[in-house]
Amino acid sequence: MRRACSGVLACVMLALPPDAGAQARKVYVSVDMEGISGVNSDNQTSATGAEYGRARKLMVEDANAAVRGAFAGGATEVVVNDSHGGQRNILPEDLDPRAKLISHSFKRHGMMEGLDETFDAVIFVGYHAKASSPRGVFAHTGSGVVRDLQINGTSVGEGGMNAILASWYGVPVVMVSGDDVAIEQQKVTAPNVRGVVVKRAINTRAVELRPLAETRREIEAAAKEAVANAKKPTPQRLSSYVVRMEFQNPNIPDVATAFTEIRSVSPSVVEFTRSSMPDAYRLIRVLYRFINPD
Ligand SMILES: [Zn+2]
Hints:
single chain, alpha/beta, five-stranded antiparallel sheet, 22% strand, globular, binds zinc ion
């Protein structure tokens, strides 16, 4: 065979398949329910609620809008993580057939299960305000038991703790959809995030819903632009993560001190320190979800 190149490097380059220059782009989509377009009542967000079936459909519509946008923005792979309640809300047959689906809540990293440094961008869909917010549809953090969660002195909600975990892996949170309070709060941990406000919270229950067709169009357009412009930052790895959790009820802190590394600060507050954010995240999740008498 005649050599078409001179030198090892040139030969290697000619040997590559024609599409080897096209970059893989992995996008991670975490989908909660309280901040979904059209969702406005707790008989929608509970799996036993009368309107749960409707809410599941609304949830997958917003998720699909984000998936379409991500692919249009250059994603070559999209992983959707069902992140609400029992985390089996999205029916695979309703999801965009190009996306993979992570399902069920018995997982160590909950709303961020499966994320690692191979991803290029993170999108949050249907997010809500943190616990104790005076306004914000169904404001809470993790579950109903948490009054406040602080990581290294900053009070965060689910969007905040998830963004800090993403930054550990060096994956930018590029887009978030939810109510207006959730979007504002997200900017504390992801200042450059693109926000799509799908509803305006009047208090923690009443809400002004925007037209569904409009919000889905906006989610798709924002996801497309956000993914197309995503740039991976250097991973943010601090040497220690000090977590302080305040609970609504002192029974949980009392039980939680069974873990020797968990310090009691007051009857309703505990604190612990971990040397990595994934480690801290896993213990936060155990405390709000798996020590839960309700
Ligand atoms: Zn949530």
